[in-house]
Amino acid sequence: MTVKHHLSDELLLSYASGNLSEGWSLAVATHLALCPECRKRLAAAEAVGGALFEAIDPVAVEADALDNVMDRIALPVAEAADIRSSKPEQATAPEDLSFPEPLRSYLGDRLNWRRLGSAQQIKIATGDRGTTCRLLKIPGGQPMPVHGHRGMELTLVLKGSFSDDDGTFARGDIEEADEGIEHQPIATEGEDCICLAVTDAPLRFRGLAALMQPFLRI
Amino acid sequence: MTTRGTAPTSGINRLAKAPSAGTVKQKTDGAALSALLCAIGETQDKEAFAELFKHFAPRLKSYIIRLGSDAGAAEELTQETMVLVWRKASQFDPAKASASTWIFTIARNARIDAFRREKRPEYDPEDPALVPDALEAPDEPISREQSAAQLANAMQRLSEPERAVLHLSFFEDLSHGMIAERLGIPLGTVKSRMRLAFGKLRAALSELGGQPT
């Protein structure tokens, strides 16, 4: 399997810098699992972050900072606070290897497909209110359902393939569609096409809700 | 692209204290930092850790403050991140990343964990569904520290606007749309500057043979 449609530099840099929200990051990270080439580009993007970090103007830490840290590392590690521990519990989805991590854990252990026109979908819950993530299954030869969005869309193919004006997209390929782009992808004849689709959520929490966010966080 | 919600912060507290004598920015050899990390990973060398702390803790604090934390929260997270550096040091592979890059990724993730309610999805290198790296012909071993030095030089040669978009993305936690707003330029220009800057930096890395383009 060779991936033909890759992540854009902008998306990779956003992910590397840590400012890409969870929904988009889910598609990016799942593509990375399927694409060694983009993993190398990610390493380069992180090296850019490392170079910027190295060149930053230092800010003095408290006088007792080193002593504090030394005390803490001397303590036995109760639960090794692995910073990757934030990922969800590993679960085994039925179509297991079709769904690499991190997607597999997000899907849980049972795939509950719901009808969506001639297609089927599973909504994927994330902590990111700004995006909607779903798994779509489109029967071969059928067009993708219209999601009714006006913003960005990321589509990662996991099974089968689809075609549109930009070519054919198969497992591992990711399509980044910008605002205003009209496209009507059609699943390739003969096999269901399963993809992860991430879109800007139709409802955005701006205005009052955004003002209240710092309070809701507490 | 949306960013996650902003970190809880006063947002005003951006005072940069004058660095004390111990934290004056000094030119430190990347290879030496890498060796310190390896010593910590292999033998839990506390003296090596103290050295590493002197170099990186003030950078961590600066990084966290720039991303919007007040000084108190930044101090706390700096210390926490250094604890993580100690615990994870045995996972550091000098063939894969420079010390600065590795610590940058730990700080980035620690910050997301501390201040965001969202997760950061990452691929799992041990996942059987992962498509493995192609086996490459072993070419001349280029140390990551060498390529980091090369990268730092290339960074100096970027135009000011190119450097600015990278800074805003890595240090201000701004989405590309927000960067466009901040700079008063179209989103397309932000993206093309990103691509241009990243292209130049990757070209500098591939000259060394250390990174594929």
Quick description:
The complex is a heterodimer of chains A (218) and B (213). Chain A has 218 residues and is an alpha+beta fold.
Number of domains of chain B: 2
Q: List how many beta strands of chain B DSSP finds.
A: 0
CATH topology of chain A: Jelly Rolls
The Cα radius of gyration of chain B reads: 18 Å
Number of helices of chain A: 6
Helix content of chain A: 25-40%
Characterize the quaternary organization of these chains: heterodimer
With helices defined by DSSP (H or I, 4 residues minimum), what is the helix count of chain B?
A: 8
Helix proportion of chain B: 55-70%
CATH level-1 class of the largest domain in chain B: Mainly Alpha
What would CATH call the homologous superfamily of the largest domain in chain B?
RNA polymerase sigma factor, region 2, helix turn helix motif
CATH architecture of the largest domain in chain B: Orthogonal Bundle
Unreliable sequence segments of chain A:
80-87, 203-207, 213-218
Shape of chain A: elongated
Q: What is the alpha-carbon Rg of chain A in Å?
A: 20 Å
Largest sheet of chain A: 6 strands, antiparallel
Notable characteristics:
heterodimer; A: 218 residues; alpha+beta; Jelly Rolls; six-stranded antiparallel beta sheet; three-stranded antiparallel beta sheet; 6 helices; 21% strand; elongated; disordered C terminus; B: 213 residues; mainly alpha; Rna Polymerase Sigma Factor, Chain: A; Arc Repressor Mutant, subunit A; 2 domains; 8 helices; 0% strand; disordered N terminus
Textual characterization of the structure:
- The complex is a heterodimer of chains A (218) and B (213).
- Chain A is α+β, with helices and mostly antiparallel strands and 218 residues long.
- Helices cover 30% and strands 21% of the residues of chain A.
- Chain A has one domain: Jelly Rolls.
- Chain A has 6 helices and 9 strands, in the order H-H-H-H-H-E-E-E-E-E-E-E-E-E-H.
- A 6-stranded antiparallel beta sheet of chain A has the order 1-2-3-9-4-7, covered by helices on one side. In chain A, strands 6-5-8 form a 3-stranded antiparallel beta sheet, with no helix packed on it.
- Chain A is elongated.
- Chain B folds into 2 domains: 28-121, Rna Polymerase Sigma Factor, Chain: A (Orthogonal Bundle); 143-213, Arc Repressor Mutant, subunit A.
- Chain B is globular.
- The relative contact order of chain B is 0.12.
- At the A-B interface, helix 1, helix 2, helix 3 and helix 4 of A face helix 2, helix 3, helix 4, helix 5 and helix 6 of B.
